[in-house]
Design goal:
Layout: E1 2-7, E2 10-12, E3 18-26, E4 30-39, E5 46-51, E6 57-59, E7 67-72, E8 77-82, E9 91-100, E10 108-111, E11 115-119
Parallel strand pairs: 2-11
Antiparallel strand pairs: 1-3, 3-8, 4-5, 4-9, 5-6, 7-8, 9-10, 9-11
């Protein structure tokens, strides 16, 4: 069984910074893309940032230049450094990963439980 465990959310003032972390644990053969999504109240869950196993990254336009995604392929972790936070960044942030649990299997999508980020003065 694979679990994604997130940490690092909280309350921050506009212009502040937060760092989210996510660790994949369990039976893991390899991991493909890892990413962060967010869902604000009454809205759909949207992609924030994603990184491939080779290190390529992609960001939502709304966070480009402010957020940075990084991963550690040895520790099976992915992090999201969020700077210059705005009230519009308020949402529940979810970690996501494509995980293969056995070399004969296909990768499957796993989600973390979500962590709340609130940007408010």
């Amino acid at each position: 069984q694979v679990q994604l465990v997130e940490s690092g959310g909280g309350l921050v003032q506009p212009g502040g910074s937060l760092r989210l972390s996510c660790a994949a644990t369990g039976t893991i053969s390899d991991i493909g893309a890892m990413g962060w999504y967010r869902q604000a109240p009454g809205k759909e869950r949207d992609l924030v940032a994603v990184t491939t196993s080779g290190g390529s990254t992609n960001y939502a336009n709304s966070v480009k230049g402010r957020f940075t995604i990084s991963r550690d392929n040895i520790r099976n972790t992915v992090s999201l450094q969020m700077n210059s936070l705005k009230p519009d960044d308020t949402a529940v942030y979810y970690c996501n990963a494509e995980v293969r649990t056995h070399w004969l299997d296909m990768r499957r999508i796993y989600w973390g439980q979500g962590t709340q980020v609130t940007v408010s003065s």
